[in-house]
Amino acid sequence: MVQFRSLNTLIGSFFLGFSLLSVSSARAEIMFEGYYKVASSNTKIGYFIQRYEFDPKAKKFISTYYIETNTLGGNSSESLRAFADDKFQPISYQYTVKTPELTKMIDATFKGTVMTAVITQGNSSQTVSKKVPKGTFLSTFLGYLMLQKGYSNGKKFNYSAVAEEDAESYNGEAYIKDQQKFLEKPVFKILNNFKGVAFVSFVTEKGEVLGTQSPVQQIATELAPSPNLATEGFTLPVKTLNILFGRVPVGKVNTLAQSPTASAEAGKSSATPSGTPGAVANPPTAAEPTKGLEVKPPENVPPPSLPEKSSK
Questions:
Q1: Which of 100, 191, 217, 312 has the most crowded Cβ, counting Cβ within 10 A?
Q2: Contact indicator for 174, 157 with CB cutoff of 8 Å
Q3: How far is Cα 281 from Cα 42, in angstroms, rounded to an integer?
Q4: Structural domain that includes position 64
């Protein structure tokens, strides 16, 4: 449930890198894992990998993502690894963005309503300490927080969340407009506004984001039924993904990948289905591109349900 609000900057200088992270989710259960296509003005500019996990022993939610764009998207990459407790109160996160012009890393921890972040940009580093409003959460978990409160038409969710890319908290609003079909799946159409950026997300009743649209920036994301459709034209940074995720994600723990039509969809061209603005074309690359990632999924294990809220 990455909110994709920062994809408007992907066209500029949004190239994410990442620091060497300690991946400690071997016992965590994967709730969602998928690969997205990223398009601008109907042209493919990148791909996005998202995984959500819950560690029942440590009672922690974990969000991990990686984004990479081509020349049209600014030759950028971005990564996040975020932790929250079972009530979605923030614990810590590590965020890195890299562009041809700069590399920026944020390592943030939380104690109560106080956020302490070490921000490193180039050769300079500073430590900032800020108080955030009570109830503030990490924006990457917005979808699941809304899921706990329940999806229904006409419902509005006002909140305070940390924008991980700049270690600041902002007020936001999510309005569930109606229910419709997206990628032939029933979804809730949610109108979002965060950091002054308006975008639309299409979310299943399980809280899975199947796609997003930012009309002003003309950027769209769409969940792919298989990794190779999302990563076609790119050479995957295998070492980077192994460090960040613990292994190269297979992208099979999501509604679309588990659909009976997933195999058929994987064999089609990467043109976006009608009703979405992100028709994807093969991007130009300086080096010979791969045909996309092809990996075998692990044994099917049903994703866990969200833990029940405490009555306290």
A1: 217
A2: yes
A3: 7
A4: 5-266
